[in-house]
Amino acid sequence: MSITLGGVQLPDNMILEDELNWTGVAASSEMTLGGEPVIWEDAVAGGRPIDLVAYEDMGWLTRDQVLAVRALASTPGWVGTLSYEGATYRVRFRHEDPPAIDVEPLIPRPNPDRGTTTMDESSSWRSDRGGFRGHRHSRPSEGY
């Protein structure tokens, strides 16, 4: 099955972390002055958190894929489509729960987005593009 986010093709072996942990029920509670709990529960119509994750041994993204996803995440108010294992989700980046995108390079290389590159004599530069992998970012009760 293919995985796409806003038209960007992603590796097929990425996973929706905590996919089955969301129940669609929201609850809040308070204590009365007499010490009794009052609990409110209701169904949540939408807004389920989704974390699309690639671990170190799978789901590597190319630099071009990372830049394309970062461009989507850098667009204020972006809402798009995530296609995953035949299901389609209308999604947005959770900028209120940073980082909205969290990646680490597999191969350290100069950062082309900055004007300075620092190297020493033992460093070597390669012209091939290094891949990127998604990085697992711990979030309470959880993306992509």
Report what the structure shows.
The chain has about 140 residues and is mainly beta. It has a domain at about 1-20 and about 50-110 and about 130-144. It is built from one helix and eleven strands; from the N terminus they run βββββββαββββ. The strands form four sheets. The protein has a four-stranded antiparallel beta sheet with strand order 2-1-8-9, covered by helices on one side. Strands 7-11-10 form a three-stranded antiparallel beta sheet. It has a two-stranded antiparallel ribbon with strand order 3-6. β4 and β5 (about 35-45) form a beta hairpin. The protein is elongated and about 65 Å long. The chain starts with a strand and ends in a 10-residue tail after the last strand.
Strand residue content: 25-35%
Succession of helices and strands: EEEEEEEHEEEE
Structural class: mainly beta
Q: What value does the average pLDDT take?
A: 78
Number of continuous helical runs: 1
What is the straight-line distance between the termini?
18 Å
Helix content: under 10%
Low-confidence stretches: 115-144
How do the strands line up in the largest sheet? 2-1-8-9
**How does the major sheet shape up?**
4 strands, antiparallel
Strand element count: 11
Rg value: 20 Å
Shape descriptor reads: elongated
